[in-house]
Design brief:
This is DNA/RNA non-specific endonuclease. It comes from Abyssalbus ytuae. This protein is an alpha+beta fold and about 300 residues long. The chain has ten helices and 14 strands. The chain has one domain: Extracellular Endonuclease, subunit A (Extracellular Endonuclease, Chain A, 3-Layer(aba) Sandwich), CATH 3.40.570. It has helices spanning about 20-25, 25-30, 70-75, 95-100, 115, 125-130, 145, 150-165, 220-225, 260-265; strands spanning about 15-20, 35-40, 45-50, 55-60, 105-110, 140, 170-175, 200-210, 210-220, 255, 265-270, 280-285, 285, 305. The strands form four sheets. The protein has an eight-stranded antiparallel sheet, sandwiched between helices. A two-stranded antiparallel ribbon has the order 1-11.
Length: about 300
């Protein structure tokens, strides 16, 4: 079962809509955006064939049916198996030609995390759902400090301390901010210049006192890409005026209002109540946890200043 708009009972949370100017970029050769709406187990995504990354992924998470499984349960042979999705042409996707390219000092960062969708009536269903997250259409290049750091642990905190612990149901949207002025990867891929996204966002829908709310998060890896010399100096690959850069510190996560995410992504989200209305992004801090260890985290005594 793919992403379901009516997953949270009594509410319809439709996938975000791209605007008309974005739709016009597709053209007759590519077809309309419906051809690139791909359904997986417990999540779906809208792929951008021009940028070759997803506009967003949309996941349903059921805390009551969550199954604790390991990577070895998913891949008994011991190695992750990433693959392209044969439902769309390979020319619109990026696989090993990107992630094994010269100077590709970054991870295959899951948009929808495998833990988010590893739920179902039994463990086998959860394993199949988790395995379905290992498509390149669900990946973006993310520097390890971002992919394995607080960005990942913020979501783990919400999943384990809120959703699973309280048997909640939530709907989660995740994606890169795809801008025309994104920096250029230093290595051409398939002999073409490739722009790498540096801003990433999440929007979570949840119930509180039987009312629907949502909240948003943003993080950046721009400076990390520069320090690792993964991207060209900005002035070398600009084809349009540079947009004002949001003053986000690298690998930190900020809670933001939905209007900011809509402005950056040009996506329109289903409206809901919003607890965090501050126009100034708030840096999120996990207390009681060491995110540097790389081990599986215990969230028993962890707290976070997120507003839900």
């Amino acid at each position: 079962m793919a992403y379901a708009a009516n997953f949270i009972e009594g509410f319809e949370i439709l996938p975000p809509k791209i605007n008309e100017s974005e739709k016009q970029k597709f053209g007759k050769e590519i077809g309309n955006e419906d051809n690139f709406y791909l359904e997986y187990s417990n999540f779906s995504l809208l792929h951008n064939p021009l940028r070759k990354f997803a506009y967003y992924t949309a996941a349903n998470i059921d805390g009551e049916k969550f199954k604790k499984i390991t990577r070895k349960d998913i891949f008994p042979e011991g190695r992750d198996k990433w693959q392209k999705d044969n439902r769309i042409s390979g020319e619109y996707q990026l696989g090993h030609e990107l992630y094994k390219a010269v100077r590709s000092d970054f991870d295959k960062g899951h948009l929808t995390k495998r833990e988010d969708v590893q739920w179902g009536e039994n463990e086998n269903v959860a394993i199949q759902a988790a395995r379905s997250t290992f498509y390149f259409t669900n990946a973006v290049p993310q520097v390890d400090r971002l992919n394995r750091g607080i960005w990942k642990q913020i979501e783990n905190y919400i999943l384990h301390s809120e959703v699973v612990k309280n048997n909640f149901k939530v709907s989660l949207f995740t994606g890169p901010v795809l801008q025309e002025q994104d920096p250029c990867f230093v290595t051409k891929v398939n002999k073409k210049v490739l722009r790498l996204p540096y801003l990433f966002w999440k929007v979570i829908y949840y119930l509180k006192n039987d009312k629907l709310f949502y909240t948003g998060f943003l993080t950046s890896q721009k400076g990390l890409l520069e320090k690792k010399r993964i991207i060209e100096p900005v002035n070398r690959c600009l084809t349009s005026p540079q947009a004002p850069f949001l003053n986000f510190k690298d690998a930190e996560t900020y809670q933001v209002n939905i209007a900011l995410i809509e402005k950056l992504t040009r996506l329109n989200f289903t409206k809901a109540g919003e607890v965090f209305k501050n126009n100034k992004p708030e840096k999120l801090i996990l207390a009681g946890i060491d995110i540097r260890s790389g081990k599986e985290m215990d969230f028993t005594n962890v707290s976070m200043n997120v507003k839900l």
